[in-house]
Amino acid sequence: MQALVLLLWTGALLGHGSSQNTAGSQEEGSPAPDTTGMPVEEEDPFFKVPVNKLAAAISNFGYDLYRARSSMSPAANVLLSPLSVATALSALSLGAEQRTESTIHRALYYDLISNPDIHGTYKELLASVTAPQKNFKSASRIVFERKLRIKSSFVAPLEKSYGTRPRILIGNPRLDLQEMNSWVQTQMKGKIARSTREVPSGISILLLGVAYFKGQWVTKFDSKKTSLADFHLDEERTVRVPMMSDPKAILRYGLDSDLNCQIAQLPLTGSMSIIFFLPQKVTQNLTMIEESLTSEFIHDIDRELKTIQAVLTIPKLKLNDESEVTKSLQEIKLQSLFDSPDFSKITGKAIKLTQVEHRAGFEWNEDGAGSTSNPGLQPTRLTFPLDYHLNQPFIFVLRDTDTGALLFIGKILDPRGT
After folding, report:
1. What is the domain extent for residue 142?
2. Locations of Polar residues compositional bias (predicted)?
3. Do the beta carbons of residue 183 and residue 165 sit within 8 Å?
4. CATH number for 94
5. Measured on CA atoms in the order 176, 328, 65, 205, is the torsion positive or negative?
6. 310 and 408, same domain (yes or no)
7. 282 and 137, same structural domain?
8. Assigned domain for 39 exists
9. By three-state DSSP, how is residue 107 classified?
10. Mean pLDDT in the chain?
């Protein structure tokens, strides 16, 4: 298999192990300072578009959040839509004074981009990634403690840029949960199960991020070829799961020799794609792959992968997640929001972040737009047939091709569910 290397790159070239948003580290239009005498690399034109640069920043936050979350759940599936959490944090920053605003903006990598209208650009980004043809739904909400008096000067820009109004708890855990569930059902069109967990007492600020995606492949799978097959949990244990297959799949492929993994990209309708990271060995730790994930690395992969024909098998997937990401956020530069933040643009009372919840649903099956691949795609001719079987633990990234935004990321150790 390793003889079929279609793509070679080095860790140094793509910045393995770094979550620094290098694409946004300079002012727009200004060249990077040359302090080494080495040639200075031009900024990729893709990242010069304000929406794309903002998408890269909050996606890098997303990879940070995913790493923190995954390290806390080393033996479990992880499903995360970081955009929904980033949106709630970005919206909350509208009510923060300078010190607290800077804390949030650094976590979201806003300090590395020059954009006088971050929130206006965020509105544009949300409109783009949640357009009807994308099949992606995302919503965020800020919930405050009961009887809190909120300044109208906070509510107006919140509605303008993020299309949401804050919610004030009434203090009855059952009724507060009922109202929250109703909001989620309305936003997600009933696609996410209702929560049964009561809203805890002692909430000061609660952030809620929800997202749902059901992918539609550009080329659909033949349901007659779907059958039960082995998925290797490790070297000793296997489980039987419904596995879709296509003996003549057209996909984009590369082998990363540093990460020792095969990378494949499958297109979805609505200018979306899923990138899979499949280790060469079933026992390989996924941490090295996770540490390499940045917006710039994924963008470079998107440019470098080669179109090929392969024998493809992929498990049908339907996952749901309802979890707290509070501890994960505390791990990535945001502890001060839970201790002594300054949200005096919201209210005159001292308030702080106490809980961040994430609810998500994600699925793909055989559904697709067409039964044959795009005739304009000419795969690279291979000396030997290539197999790409997602029959062992893998990582996937759902990316919006138009903006580069990270919409979902998953660590699949067992496709039967979380």
Report:
1. 47-215+319-363
2. 18-28
3. no
4. 3.30.497.10
5. positive
6. yes
7. no
8. no
9. helix
10. 89
Residues 38-84: tens digit of each pLDDT? 554 567 999 999 999 999 999 999 999 999 999 999 999 999 999 99
Per-position b or e across 302-315, b if 16+ CB within 10 A of its CB: bebbebbbbebbbb
- Clarify whether residues 353 and 372 are in a common domain: no
Residue 28 lies in a domain: no
pLDDT in tens, 148-183: 999 999 999 999 999 999 999 999 999 999 999 999
Long-range contacts of 23-28 (CB under 8 A, 24+ apart): 23/47, 23/53, 23/56, 23/295, 23/296, 23/299, 24/53, 24/56, 24/57, 24/109, 24/112, 24/113, 25/112, 27/114, 28/53, 28/114
Quote the CA–CA distance of 271 and 134 in Å, as a whole number.
Answer: 7
Question: What CATH code is carried by the domain that includes residue 263?
Answer: 2.30.39.10
DSSP state string for 242-293 = EEEEEEEEEEEEEEETTTTEEEEEEEETTTEEEEEEEESSTT--SHHHHHH-
Tokens of 63: 């990879």
Query: How distant, in Å, are the alpha carbons of 37, 60, 61, 104, 107 from that of 333?
Result: 34, 13, 10, 8, 6
Q: Per the structure block, which two tokens stand in for 415?
A: 């496709």
144 and 180 together in one domain: yes
Same domain, 228 and 143: no
**Tally of domains in the chain:** 2
